[in-house]
Amino acid sequence: MKRMIPFALMLLFSTSTYSQTIVGTWKTIDDESGKARSIVEIYEEENRYYGKILKLFREEDEDPDPVCDECEDHRKGQKIIGMEIISDMKFNKKENEYHKGEIMDPENGNIYDCKLWVADDGNLKVRGYLLFFYRTQTWLPYTRE
Asked: Which residue segments constitute the domains of the chain, with CATH numbers given?
């Protein structure tokens, strides 16, 4: 019994400090309509994390391959499919989150400070900041159908 207590404490500590990675593909969900909007791939390059749109879920009356007319940076006129919308995220081990990067909303061209983390349920929490205001979306793990 004395040997089990240290083992149990070690197991508890190791699971509480384990972090899940954001690398992979995620289905974005519109937080107002609840509908799937896109598939985003998050990848790592040189200890920084980026995300690009792989696929859009469009209504029949919407352009299936739109460009970002609202963008005001180098992405203006660029196709949204393939566009990098998450950039320069860094992993903060202490907080178990990814931060100090940006996220861009291709529907309106706005760029926000960003924070990402994997929730206990395995979903990705995506928070965009503008000054003191923020909005958090939940993205779902995506496996190719």
From this structure: 22-141 (2.40.128.520)
